[in-house]
Amino acid sequence: MNYIAVVEDSAQDRAVLDSYLEKYQQEKNCHFQITHFSDGDEIALGYKGGYDLILMDIEMPGMNGLDAARAVLEQRPECKVIFVTAYSLFQYAHEAVHLGACDYLLKPVDPDELEASVRRAIRQIQTERKLEELAAAQPQPQPEPPAAGEEAEESPEEGENSQAALIMAHVRRYLEDNYMFDLSLDSVGEILHISPAYLSAQFKKY
Q: What is the pLDDT of residues 140-184, one digit of tens each?
């Protein structure tokens, strides 16, 4: 299940986004837990929600969507944000990119564009989760070679190679899904809790 927040001061626009998300769930056979907020203050002040994806308006009473997204991302950097706004101002779009938004959509929202944006965001979320699972299951460092005369333990090399190959397949998928952002081996290494040097070495092998 994915937890989604819709932050929109217009009841009509909230209803439109809800209808698109409902259609997406039916077509993709998935389930979203959706929570609504009518302005940026509601979601940002004292943020405690573990949302995976936020559909965020920008021009709202109180805190605007850009500031609200910044506040949320400071507490949950892995959260994905899609801005949905009626304003095509360069300043807004530039700030959205700077915040690492998945997309910047203009109202009235095109259903196909929203579907594509949500699909990309969900795929990124799923890939990051898989990377974290693989990181937690990484094999421990190999023991020191046995001393002369001692029996060598069964080598775990084959299992480790399979695990490393699986990790690198998901790393490549993550990089492909996030190519538009300023990614580095350092940022991917943070997700995996392994060094960029190790990732670089694995890229050369796989």
A: 444 455 555 555 554 445 555 666 676 667 666 666 665 555 555
Provide the b/e sequence for 93-104 (b: ≥16 CB within 10 Å): bebbeeebbbbb
Contact 193, 206 (CB under 8 A): no
Contact 32, 2 (CB under 8 A): yes
- Say how far apart CA 101 and CA 56 lie, in whole Å: 10
What is the Cα–Cα distance from 83 to 8, expressed in whole angstroms? 10
- In total, the chain counts a number of residues equal to 206
Nearest Cα residue to 181 out of 92, 77, 50: 77
Q: CA 104, CA 124: separation in Å to the nearest integer?
A: 16
Contact 168, 203 (CB under 8 A): yes
